Amino acid sequence: MKFRPISSDLLTARLEPPKPGCRLVLDTDTYNEIDDPFALVYALRSPELRLEAVYAAPFHNDRSDGPKDGMERSYGQICEILELLGEERPVFRGSERWMTGPDDPVDSPAARDLIARAMSSEEPLYVAAIGAPTNVASAILLEPAIREKITVVWLGGHGLHMPKTDEFNMAQDYYASRALLESGVPLVLLPCNGVVSHLLITIPELETTLAGKGKCGQYLLDITRDYMQKHPCASKVIWDIATIGWLCNAGWYQSRLIPSPVLNPDMTYSVSEDPERHPIRYINFLSRDQIFEDLYQKM
After folding, report:
1. Helix 67-85 × helix 35-44 angle, to 10°
2. Which own/partner pairs from 160-164 qualify as long-range (CB within 8 Å, at least 24 positions apart)?
3. Residues with Cβ < 8 Å from 142, sequence gap 6 or more?
4. Burial 221-236 (b: 16+ CB within 10 A, else e)
5. Helix-helix angle 288-298:35-44, to 10 degrees
6. How far is CA 116 from CA 78, 111, 173, in A?
7. What is the pLDDT of residues 213-258, one digit of tens each?
8. Would residue 212 be called left, alpha or beta, if left means φ above 0 and alpha means ψ between -120 and 50 degrees?
9. pLDDT(299) > 80
10. pTM
11. Which among 44, 84, 117, 136 would be 20 to 30 A from 163, CA to CA?
12. Is 62 exposed, middle or buried (0-12, 13-18, 19+ CB in 10 A)?
C-alpha cells in the first residue's frame, strides 16, 4: 500500500515524549518470555500512564505451536496477571497468523479495537508494541487514518550498527515490520541488541528488590526463578520494559530523529538518504539503573 504522508508538523509533535497521564494500549506476546509480564505489571503500576486495553500478539517458538497458539496463550496469561493483581482492563485477542504480503492485513478484535479507540478521541493514543507488530500494522492498513491519532513505541530490530536486524519481534512477521516502517506513523523505535540489551537482571538482584514486595513484586520474582531455574547464576535481559520506561520518563533515554530505515528481505537495514523520507525517533542509549529503580519502587 502507498501511504499518504501525514503532516510533518503533526509527525514531529507526536515524536516528542508524552505528557503525564497519556492514553496507552499494550500489544504483547505475553507468554513468549518473562519480560512481557514485567512490562504489563510496570504499565499497570505507573500513574504516569492510563492503560486502556491490552492486546494479545502472536508468536511462534518452542513455547507455542504457531502464531495462533502463541496469541491464545498470551491472551490467557494477560487475563491471569490482571486477575492476580485485582486489575480490570479490556483484553482483546489478536492476529491468528502472520501477514503474507504488504497488502494483507490480518483482521482481529485487537486491530478493530485499536482503530475504534484511536478514532474515538482527539487525545493521542500511545501504542506500546512489544511483540511482532502484526496487530498494529494490520490496524494501520485497515484504517490508515489512525496514523494521525497514535504514536507507536515499538521494541523491534537491532541497532543500526549491527550487521543484521533479524531480531525475534521483527523477524516473526517481515511484512508487518516493514509496513510499520513504511507507513509514516509516528514511531519510536527501541532496538534490542546494542541498546535495550543493557536491561539485564539477576536472581540475587530481584531477591533483594522484589521479595515480599506485594503481589506484583513476588509474582515477577517467582516467574523469573522458574524461567531461569536451569541457569540461576546467569543474567537475563528484560527487554520489554524499555517501552514503558520511555513513556514514563524519556529523560532516561538518548535519542535522535532519523529517516525511517528500509527493512530488506534479508533482514538488513538500508539507511535512506532520501530527504523526503519520513522521520522516526530512534533510541540509541538508555539508563539501565534509573529504569529498574523506577520499576522496583512501583512494586
Report:
1. 40
2. 160/191, 160/258, 160/261, 160/269, 160/271, 160/282, 161/194, 162/191, 162/193, 162/194, 163/268, 164/266, 164/267, 164/268
3. 105, 107, 111, 112, 115
4. bebbeeebeeeeeeeb
5. 60
6. 21, 9, 24
7. 888 889 999 999 999 988 878 999 999 999 999 999 999 999 999 9
8. left
9. yes
10. 0.96
11. 136
12. exposed
Q: In whole angstroms, what is the distance from residue 299 CA to residue 289 CA?
A: 16
- DSSP conformation letters of the chain: -PPPPPPHHHHHHHTSPPPTTEEEEEEE-TTT-THHHHHHHHHHT-TTEEEEEEEEPP--STT-SSHHHHHHHHHHHHHHHHHHHT----EE---SS---STT-----HHHHHHHHHHHT-SS-EEEEE-S-THHHHHHHHH-GGGGGTEEEEEE-S--TTSS----HHHHHTHHHHHHHHHS---EEEE-TTTTGGG-EEEHHHHHHHHTTSHHHHHHHHHHHHHHTTT-TTSEEE-TTHHHHHHHH-GGGEEEEEEEPPEEPTTS-EE----TTSPEEEEEEEE-HHHHHHHHHHH-
What are the tens digits of pLDDT across the range 107-134?
A: 999 999 999 999 999 999 999 999 999 9
Q: 101-127 as b/e, with b when 16 or more CB fall inside 10 Å?
A: eeeebbebbbbbbbbebbeeeeebbbb
C-alpha cell at 190: 527501541
203 pLDDT tier (thresholds 50, 70, 90)? very high
Residue 21 pLDDT greater than 80, yes or no:
yes
Q: What are the phi and psi torsion angles at 92 (to 5°)?
A: -125, 135
What grid cell was written down for 29?
A: 506476546
Residues 6+ apart with CB under 8 A from 255: 188, 281, 282, 283, 284
- For 69, other C-beta atoms within 10 Å of its C-beta total 16
